Amino acid sequence: xxxxxxxxxxxxxxxxxxxxxxxxxxxxxxxxxxxxxxxxxxxxxxxxxxxxxxxxxxxxxxxxxxxxxxxxxxxxxxxxxxxxxxxxxxxxxxxxxxxxxxxxxxxxxxxxxxxxxxxxxxxxxxxxxxxxxxxxxxxxxxxxxxxxxxxxxxxxxxxxxxxxxxxxxxxxxxxxxxxxxxxxxxxxxxxxxxxxxxxxxxxxxxxxxxxxxxxxxxxxxxxxxxxxxxxxxxxxxxxxxxxxxxxxxxxxxxxxxxxxxxxxxxxxxxxxxxxxxxxxxxxxxxxxxxxxxxxxxxxxxxxxxxxxxxxxxxxxxxxxxxxxxxxxxxxxxxxxxxxxxxxxxxxxxxxxxxxxxxxxxxxxxxxxxxxxxxxxxxxxxxxxxxxxxxxxxxxxxxxxxxxxxxxxxxxxxxxxxxxxxxxxxxxxxxxxxxxxxxxxxxxx
Length: 444
Ligand code: HSE
Known about the structure:
By secondary structure, the protein is α/β, with parallel strands linked by helices. Helices cover about 40% and strands about 25% of the residues. The protein folds into 3 domains: about 5-135 and about 305-340, Rossmann fold (3-Layer(aba) Sandwich); about 140-300, 2-Layer Sandwich (Dihydrodipicolinate Reductase, domain 2), CATH 3.30.360; about 350-440, ACT domain (Alpha-Beta Plaits). It has 16 helices and 17 strands. The strands form 3 sheets. It has a 6-stranded parallel beta sheet with strand order 3-2-1-4-5-6, with helices on both faces. Strand 11 and strand 12 form a beta hairpin. The two termini are about 40 Å apart. It binds L-homoserine (HSE). L-homoserine binds near residues 160, 201 and 300. Pathway: Amino-acid biosynthesis; L-threonine biosynthesis; L-threonine from L-aspartate: step 3/5; Amino-acid biosynthesis; L-methionine biosynthesis via de novo pathway; L-homoserine from L-aspartate: step 3/3. Its EC number is 1.1.1.3. One of its GO terms (biological process) is threonine biosynthetic process.
């Protein structure tokens, strides 16, 4: 069957990510969506650059309206940004009966109500997972995963630029202006960073989350917006001494009298997970009456993280077009006829094939040559040592002890190889107790 035809409006950082990820993962995406998804047309003012990205895989045009007018196009992806031409194009795409995917938080926070109404009247979807917190599926979590709850509050670090600046100010004790220049040099902040540093970008995202959390219209004009430009390094230091970190939070809360919607620098207890979200990363905490507090963390910007969210929307819409309504989302994520048989080409590995690194604690006689013998056995089994720690015998077994603990961290190795080596080490007469093995996961 012909793949779903997608028209891209704008192929900058995010657009090229969408193109590349769709190419790279096309087989899995097809198996999930139930149909192929293909970028058939791209509209960009810089047609030459667009062609250098898509080659001959998609038709490149200079006029976005050519994409919208093409009856072959099923879904229009708007990646132009801003409230101007982007708004007109989204409304025109909707009027032409196209489904729309957009990453445009500014547009939705200000004109979302009008756009969603137009889409509902026309019977098309406007999907926007990428508009809030980039690659983190927070829209899906709020709208679907937490649907049982009365959401009580949402608080998020939803602007990577400002979180990077605050992290640097704290780490290096530098003032805002100095760090901003550095952030611009490194590409973490735009040449015109106003929307980020004044809190506007975060307020757009908080506005969208507020609407979803509480079932109210998007009301960006009611949001309180305060950025980080007036923050002094001194306050970050004093806050730290009192056990707090300063973060730019987007907050929305359900109160008796109404809904709070605000963005401003906030002191957060240093022990909270969200206080430890550093650099350009994003995180959102959602508190629901049934579920309690949940946390979502990840990259809030960047080419492929944002593309991840855009493509998730493309898959959702394709399933909507394609699937039997009772099985819109396949129970095991992939369309059932594309599931692999157990053991086929992607078996669950036996533990002996698992690759991980290890912490070993070996109780040994404190004698000459014991360590050399053990490391020799590890080397013989092809296992590389990352670190070794030997405790003083007195510390381990009390004064005059002749036993000690050897702590060894290894690099990655096959569990089967480790089993063989540990059996040999355990058999040494100088190893005095069962060896403790704990697997180590860096998760980086
Ligand atoms: N400028 C945003 C940020 C990314 O710094 O997080 C896109 O919303």
